[in-house]
Amino acid sequence: MLNSIELFAGCGGLLDGFEQSGHYNLLAAVEWEEAPCENLRHRLKDKWNMEDADNRVLRFDIQRTEELIQGWKDDPEYGSGLGLDNLIQGKRVDVIAGGPPCQAYSIAGRVRDENGMRDDYRNYLFESYLKVVNHYRPKAFLFENVPGILTAKPGNGERLIIDIIHEEFEKAGYCVLSDLSKAVVDMTEYGVPQNRSRIIIVGLSRDEYGDRCEEMLECYYKKHLASYKVEKKATVRQAIGDLPGLYPLGKTEKYNGKSISHSLPDPWVDNHVARWQSDRDIKIFRMLEEDVQSGQNKYVSIEALKRLYTEMTGKTSNVHKYHVIRWDEPSNLIPAHLYKDGLRHIHPDPKQARSITVREAARLQTFPDDYVFYGSNVVTFKMIGNAVPPLFAKKAALALSKLLEE
């Protein structure tokens, strides 16, 4: 078993894949947001029988790295915590995994921000990640992020952030691919039913592996990880087609104190409750779903969708607001901002005329049904969208364990 630490753990998509692989012993997980921490603790207790999950999951700001490692007391936001050293108690840390929040590197985020996210503090969270790596000197680390990290230029915009990261990893004594564009992974090739590409940077300790590092990295990407590719991409139908249908009620009702416009699942499935939709949106969704199902495809082009939005709402938008996911293809990307609305993730069935549920988003992210999410739609959609798909994480973890065993 390889001892591991998880940084920027979120609700545990990456961590869950590592646990599913059966090759890792989680020593500690670090996350600063409260809701993901609570969900992760539930998961570690309920699924992975970690009775000490309340201690093992550290809710703290990784930028305060020295306190994170040594422990902290009576913080107004984070209370008191043991710190990583007290949890680990001198055990060898073999692997550190995690990826800093990607919004600062996201191309979409840079387009929306008037300063291209150059001044966003999240550009430099990798430094905190590296401080933890430097302290524990693991055999390897796995760093996940968006491909936009390859083109982001923070601060004065003179240098690519990826060049800075590469340089700092090397200074710390860790070897990574010389051309990190080769570390970009299309997760549909690994069975994830969603168009999601991510950069997966594996670093190997030069102290541990010396001159073999470059050869080992080539082996990781080209042999071990590639061996888990699927012959045929998974589809939306395979992911969510067996879930109970949720149909318009024709009126607004109450469930657990919240308004609903669609029926509840029968039989019951956790987290599978449709958000409330207005009569107007139900009408639009059904029109778009029938257009796709019939093959007429009147509303496929961006311009047609923008015109429809203006006709139905009286508003204008520079981007098209609607997208029906297709039964027999992978879904479009499940993003963190799915919590704001579901207009870009409309269910394919015209009879249901709704956006996707939390459970459907979770399935498209390959979370198993026994991962029950706690919290509001805002909280749960955001957590799921920010996560690494556990199915891919399991394969990445298995490939890394094979590499280190060799």
Q: Could you please describe the fold and organization of this structure?
A:
By secondary structure, the chain is of the alpha/beta class. The protein folds into 2 domains: 2-234 and 389-405, Vaccinia Virus protein VP39 (Rossmann fold); 236-385, Alpha-Beta Complex (DNA Methylase, Chain A, domain 2). Helix content is 37%, strand content 15%. The chain contains 16 helices and 12 strands. The strands form 3 sheets. Strands 1, 2, 3, 6, 7, 8, 9 and 10 form an 8-stranded mixed beta sheet that branches. Strands 4-5 form a two-stranded antiparallel ribbon.
CATH topology descriptor of the largest domain:
Rossmann fold
How many strands in all? 12
Residue-averaged pLDDT = 92
Which CATH architecture of the largest domain is right?
3-Layer(aba) Sandwich
Overall geometric form:
globular
Which secondary-structure class do the elements indicate?
alpha/beta
Q: Specify the helix fraction band.
A: 25-40%
Produce the secondary structure layout:
Elements: E1 2-6, H1 13-21, E2 24-31, H2 34-46, H3 53-56, E3 57-59, H4 65-70, E4 72-75, E5 79-81, H5 84-88, E6 95-98, H6 107-112, H7 125-136, E7 140-145, H8 161-171, E8 174-175, E9 184-186, E10 197-205, H9 206-209, H10 213-225, H11 236-240, E11 248-255, E12 258-262, H12 279-294, H13 302-313, H14 358-364, H15 377-386, H16 390-405
Parallel strand pairs: 1-2, 1-6, 2-3, 6-7
Antiparallel strand pairs: 4-5, 7-10, 8-10, 9-10, 11-12
